[in-house]
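Renewal narrative, Specific Aim 1. Our central claim is that a sequence can be written position by position from structural information alone. The example that follows is taken directly from our test logs and has not been curated for this report. It begins with the structure tokens describing the chain, in the order in which they were read.
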């Protein structure tokens, strides 16, 4: 059963990634990505697996993490599936943030989203750097905040 839940979770996230990467400006993508429901579903699965995976040994490994203890705990399929679901939830959440950041600013996000799908922190770093480069070198200068009607008359 754990293997089936693992496989379902892996497949579950793919449509969200696909629409953010392939159809970012589609109205349906925006509507779907407004929702927190995918995260509620994945977090629910995570909580279920977490509860099932907790044993005295895993609780000890998680409460005072030592690399060797964690490696031993993650040799258990349920613990590994729980950790993987954690990655899926957090990577998708960061991907959603990258997506909305790009929608708001116009910064290109396809490459960062693709990286985030496979290696979340690399996608996040990619977006931070892309956003910085875009703002630093390609952003149009903002107009002065004083409008002609409110500026002081010239003498």
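The sequence written for that structure reads:
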């Amino acid at each position: 059963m754990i293997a089936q839940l693992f496989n379902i979770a892996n497949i579950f996230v793919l449509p969200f990634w696909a629409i953010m990467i392939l159809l970012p400006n589609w109205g349906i993508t925006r509507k779907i990505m407004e929702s927190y429901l995918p995260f509620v579903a994945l977090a629910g699965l995570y909580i279920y697996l977490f509860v099932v995976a907790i044993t005295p040994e895993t609780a000890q490994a998680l409460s005072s993490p030592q690399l060797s203890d964690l490696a031993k705990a993650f040799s258990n399929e349920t613990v590994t599936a729980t950790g993987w679901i954690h990655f899926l939830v957090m990577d998708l959440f960061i991907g959603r943030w990258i997506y909305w950041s790009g929608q708001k600013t116009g910064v290109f996000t396809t490459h960062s989203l693709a990286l985030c799908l496979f290696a979340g922190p690399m996608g996040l770093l990619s977006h931070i750097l892309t956003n910085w480069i875009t703002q630093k070198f390609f952003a149009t200068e903002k107009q002065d905040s004083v409008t002609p009607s409110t500026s002081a008359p010239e003498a």
